[in-house]
Write a structure and sequence with these properties.
The chain is of the alpha+beta class. It has helices spanning about 10-15, 60-70, 115-125; strands at about 50-55, 60, 80. The chain is globular, with a radius of gyration of 16 Å.
Length: about 130
């Protein structure tokens, strides 16, 4: 299994999103690739470079994650990283958007905009690793 080293957001997202295949070639994990920003409801297709996720895969567009939420997930309080792009082309057996399609279930905020704003204001100055 490949080793990925470093502490950059890209490396974290890559580690988080890797599809682990065990010795029987059963897929153990794949991201849902949710189809929309939970805040503004803009579409985020599987190849969106502006999709951001937290460690629970709450999904937001880059604009909302940075300018509305200030890198604070309104659900868990964690930070965001760029969502990895799932390859459209099957470069390894069973690993592609066609084999693991993105979710079509739209997800929306669980909390009011006022509650989200207060939550994000409370935590925005605390680095994600210290929350």
């Amino acid at each position: 299994m490949a080793q990925i080293e470093g502490n950059s957001p890209f490396v974290f997202a890559t580690r988080f999103a890797m599809i682990w295949v065990n010795r029987t070639n059963e897929t153990a994990m794949a991201l849902q690739l949710r189809p929309n920003c939970e805040y503004c409801d803009n579409d985020l297709p599987p190849n969106a470079t502006d999709a951001r996720i937290c460690s629970y895969e709450c999904t937001f567009c880059a604009d909302c994650a940075e300018n509305k939420l200030h890198n604070v997930c309104p659900n868990c309080g964690g930070g965001f990283v760029p969502r990895p792009i799932r390859p459209a082309t099957e470069r390894r057996p069973g690993v592609s958007v066609a084999k693991h399609p993105p979710s079509d279930k739209r997800v929306h905020l669980k909390y009011s905009l006022d509650d989200v704003a207060a939550h994000c204001a409370r935590w925005r100055d605390v680095p994600p690793q210290d929350r």
